[in-house]
Specification:
Blueprint: E1 23-25, E2 32-34, H1 49-60, H2 77-88
Antiparallel strand pairs: 1-2
């Protein structure tokens, strides 16, 4: 088995001992990432720290969001909305 996941071919996508996938696509660049312990990168499930950082940046800039209605944590949220309105007024 090649050490570089970029060299994976279609006939090497399953682990013969388990029949399970041996590689998964990186969530950022779709490059194959090894699932075997000996080849699994420290940045798993990403192929590199660059892809991991790119994904983190997408979450931080709200490029990735979880759909749904905004949560109201407690009864004090309305007070915060009023205070923010006062600060933003000219």
């Amino acid at each position: 088995m090649p050490k570089d996941p970029a060299l994976v071919t279609a006939d090497m996508t399953t682990d013969p001992s388990t029949g399970l996938p041996a590689f998964l696509p990186c969530p950022t660049c779709r490059r194959p990432v090894s699932l075997t312990a000996a080849l699994k990168p420290a940045t798993f499930p990403f192929c590199s720290s660059r892809c991991r950082t790119t994904d983190l940046g997408a979450w931080a800039s709200q490029g990735h969001v979880i759909p749904g209605t905004p949560l109201r944590l407690d009864g004090y949220d309305d007070d915060l909305d009023q205070l923010q309105g006062q600060v933003n007024e000219p």
